[in-house]
Amino acid sequence: MLFICLKIKGMSKEDIEELKEIVQAAKRLEELIKEIEGPLTDWQEKNLAHEFFCIGAPSVRPIADVVSRIEDALHHHEEPEKESILNWDAAIVYEGLCNLRDQWNALFTKKRVDGQQVYAIFSQWTNLIYKYTEYIGNKYGLIPSSFKIGSKAMKCLGSCGGTSIKFNRRLIKDCGHAMTTAIHELCHIRHFDHSTRFWQLYEDICLNEGILLERVLGNKRSFRSIHEPIPYRWDTGIDFFSDRESNAIQKYMRRCKSFRKTLENKTKES
Length: 270
What we know:
Blueprint: H1 2-9, H2 13-37, H3 42-50, H4 63-75, H5 90-107, H6 115-140, E1 146-149, E2 158-161, E3 164-167, H7 175-190, H8 196-208, H9 243-253, E4 261-262
Parallel strand pairs: 1-3
Antiparallel strand pairs: 1-4, 2-3
Helix pairs in contact: 2-4, 3-4, 5-6, 6-7, 7-8
C-alpha cells in the first residue's frame, strides 16, 4: 500500500484524474455485472448475445469501453437506425481500412508492442470489414451467416463454407484486397465454384461499388485468365504478416473464438 501511495504521490494531476476515471469506470462495471447476473428481458439477452466484444479478456480492453458497450446492450432498447448507404461508400470504407492499417503498422515500429493496442486495432478492423461485408451481402441478396478470422496457417485470403465467411488475418495490411475478398467470398454464397457466372457476378458488384473502374471480363472465363493489370480503384498488392505481428494477435484468437461473429437471419431490404 505504501508503494502504491508513493507512486500516486509522484503522478501528475492529469495522471491522477485519469486514474480516478478508471476507478469510476470500474465501479460502474461492477454494477453492470450485478445487473447481468440478475433477471434480464428478452431484448437485453439478445443485445448482450449479439454484442461483439471479448468479455473473456477485460484486461486487454479499456474498462470504459467495456462499460459503454454493456450499457448500450442493457439500456438502449431502440432499434438501431438504418445505416446510410453513404456510410458504406467504397471510398469511405477504404479510408477507414487504411487508417487502421497505418495504426497497425505503426505499432510494430516500436521495440515493445502494446498488447492492448494490438487487440483494440484488430478488433476495430474486424468490426469494419465484417459490417462492410454484411452491408454488401444484404444489398445484393448474398446473405452470410457468420464471419471469423482464419488460423495462423491460413494461406488463401478468404474462404466461404456455405454461408460462413473466413478472412485471412493479414488482410488488415491490404485494404484493397480486404474489400475485394469480401465481395469474392460473398459471391460464393450464390456460386460455389469459379465459373463464368461467378466472375460475372463479382465483376458486376465491384463495378457497381466503384471498386473496379471498367469491365475487363469480356469473353474471358475468369479474372484469373486476365494477364494485364486489372483496373481496380486501389492497389491490391499483397503484404505478408511478420512473425511478430502474427504472434501478437495469436494470443487473442482463442479467447475471442477467432473473432467469430454470428449474424441474425435477414432478408434483403427492398
